[in-house]
């Protein structure tokens, strides 16, 4: 009788250990699963301009040129545009209309006035590296005898247009 009881206990122990081993294997198999991670990268454009920029002094009837460095950052194709005003502020804070021509070199290489409507500086450019791409904006002013001597300030508005 003792051997029969021993065999039953032995069988139960083996059965329990085998069951634990099978459960352990299935738990190990579940520790290595795959899933799909969804994410979206949005379009982004950024423009870095100096706070101010000085053109060289211009004499009436003469022309001055300067190169304004601008940093563009974009992960899509982009256009860069600039527009200005035909008015300026003098040293006393008075708004004056100036006769001198303010121009920029457009994407085709020609000089165009920037005081009437926005000029395209760059068109359909590729995405930039992470550190950005420096764009040189060529500016030119043709002095006019109608403008009195003085130091003037005007604003240029740059627009970076993503091509989506």
Describe this protein's structure.
The protein is an alpha+beta fold and 164 residues long. It has one helix and ten strands, in the order H-E-E-E-E-E-E-E-E-E-E. The strands form three sheets. It has a five-stranded antiparallel beta sheet, with no helix packed on it. The termini are far apart. 12% of the residues are buried. The mean pLDDT is 87.
- Which class of secondary structure composition applies to the elements? alpha+beta
Order of helix and strand elements from N to C terminus: HEEEEEEEEEE
Q: Report the count of strand segments.
A: 10
Strand content: 35-45%
Mind describing the biggest β-sheet?
5 strands, antiparallel
Tell me the number of helical segments per DSSP (H or I, 4 or more residues long).
1
Poorly predicted tracts of residues: none
List keywords for this structure.
alpha+beta; single chain; 164 residues; five-stranded antiparallel sheet; 18% helix; three-stranded antiparallel sheet
Short description, anyone?
With 164 residues, this protein is of the alpha+beta class. 18% of the residues lie in helices and 37% in strands.
Summarize the topology.
Blueprint: H1 2-30, E1 45-48, E2 63-74, E3 77-83, E4 87-89, E5 95-97, E6 101-105, E7 111-113, E8 119-125, E9 133-142, E10 157-163
Antiparallel strand pairs: 1-2, 2-9, 3-8, 3-10, 4-5, 6-7, 6-9
